[in-house]
Amino acid sequence: MLSVGVHVNQLIKPAVALMNRLPMFYKFSLISVLFLLPIIALSWLVISELNRSVDTMTRGVEGLEQLEKVDTLLAESMAYRDFRAPGKIKDDNELLSQSAESSETIDRILEELVNAEARFDESGNWSQQVAMLVEEWQTLKSTDSYQGNIDPQFKYYQEFVQKVRALLSATIEISGLGQDASRENLLLLGLLRESLPDARSIIGRARTFGTFALIDGQVGYNLSDALNEIYDELTNRASLLGPALTVSMDASPTLEKTTGDAVEGILESLVVVRDELDANIITPMRLELPWRDFNRTIENQLAHYDALKAGIFDVVGANLNSRLEGELQQRQLIIAALVIVLLVVVYLYVGFFMSVRTAINRFSTAARSVAEGDMTTHIQLDNRDELGELTTEFNNMTDRIAELIRSVSSTTSDVDRQATRVNDTAAANSEAVARQMEESGQINEA
Q1: Does pLDDT of 4 surpass 70?
Q2: What value does the mean pLDDT take over residues 376-396?
Q3: The whole model's pTM is what?
Q4: Which parts of 91-149 fold into alpha helices (H)?
């Protein structure tokens, strides 16, 4: 135990030597810096983490805004494909006019995407993909090749649709939406990325091939195979879409409440289109249904998709904004708390420094007064700590010294008085002796 104490003393000796050489102000300054630096560093780390969290949420909000534009671009690209393919093959002005309307919308959206301030795109990959997509679109419009048959013509325009879907996925990933902590948001974004585009794409294929068949007035062998394939795809996609929607609705009661009718319509849409395709195009020997009526049925089903997507964007946006507001409030509260803690620490530390310095100054003044001979000096200090105890001992010391001085002074006075009495007695005795000697001399003379 003794050896441990010796080792501790040896270990702390350099620090004691350093403190002994520094004036009081520098001691407190050094300790203050060493004490506050870790607190400031920790505060900086906490605030940095909060800022990163807020930046992530802000990127998500901004990314969602661009994602909605890309989703609209995807829908218009599919519409352009659906109308342009049969219109190009049949040289139908009404279908080409419909595709031209979608083309104008695509031009507008692409321009908005190019001019968008995508602050979430720190690497520039998203802007690069947008630029490439614009280039692909301009090439598609300028060439617009005639492929000779409806199937290759559809696939010709489908290539651009696939690139728009790639941009949709890239927007979700680059903006950080794909790494969102909310399960609800991830499931809803999954619908936007996969389930709904897949379903809408097969419906669009049914519209393209069905419209072509109705305009042509007959279903050839090759077209019949394609229509039967579409029929099967509609059936299969309906069986896959239902579970995906059910899981998403269970995770998002708000969306289910606001878009319940649209969800029901989507669940039935693939079957409705399939039955319409079968009843009026695949089965009949003569095709008498006007393609406009068939397209109207398709449009009615696609309206459910538009309603659901609008609801998804509203719910995801509300979730992101709510969490962003919470993050901002949390950051403000933590920053305020850190500032208050730092201010309290600094305030108390300054108070401690002033208390010690005041006590030392008063002790120094009192010590000088005592050195000058004023033994009545007292230190006025209201401390209840060790300095207060030292003050009491100092005052008691000066009181005892003063009392001792008074006692010595009193004893000296008594000695002086006794000495005076002895001198007076000795003088009286001397006078008495002198008188007696004088009287003895007179007697002897006589």
Answers
A1: no
A2: 75
A3: 0.75
A4: 93-115, 125-143
Amino acid at 2: L
Distance CA 435, CA 437 (A): 5
Provide DSSP, 393-434: HHHHHHHHHHHHHHHHHHHHHHHHHHHHHHHHHHHHHHHHHH
- Number of Cβ atoms within 10 Å of the Cβ of 134: 16
Give the pair of three-digit tokens for residue 396: 């008691």
Question: Given this model, what pLDDT does residue 126 score?
Answer: 93
Contact 168, 197 (CB under 8 A): yes
Go through the chain and tell me how many residues it has: 446
pLDDT digits (tens, 9 = 90+) for 158-209: 999 999 999 999 999 998 888 877 899 999 999 999 999 999 999 999 999 9
For 28, residues 6+ apart whose C-beta sits below 8 A from its C-beta are: 349, 353, 356
Distance CA 226, CA 237 (A): 16
- 1 pLDDT higher than 60: no
- Closest by CA position to 113, among listed 137, 80, 87: 137
Mean pLDDT of 30-39: 76
Q: Are 85 and 153 in contact (CB under 8 A)?
A: yes
pLDDT recorded at residue 357: 77
Alpha carbons 286 and 295: distance in angstroms, whole number: 18
φ, ψ of residue 239 in degrees (nearest 5) = -70, -25
Distance CA 315, CA 39 (A): 40
In 220-290, which residue ranges form alpha helices assigned H by DSSP? 221-251, 253-258, 260-277
pLDDT at 445: 64
Q: Cβ distance 324 to 185 under 8 Å?
A: no
The model's confidence at residue 429, banded by pLDDT at 50, 70 and 90, is low
Question: Rounded to the nearest 5°, which phi and psi values hold at 275?
Answer: -65, -40
Structure tokens belonging to residue 75: 């829908």
Give yes or no for residue 219 having a pLDDT over 80: yes
| Backbone CA torsion sign across 68, 73, 74, 78 | positive
Q: b/e for 146-185, b at 16 or more Cβ within 10 A? A: eeeebbebbebbbebbebbbebbebbbebbbbbebebebb
The domain spans of the chain are 46-336
Whether 226 and 277 have beta carbons less than 8 Å apart is answered as no
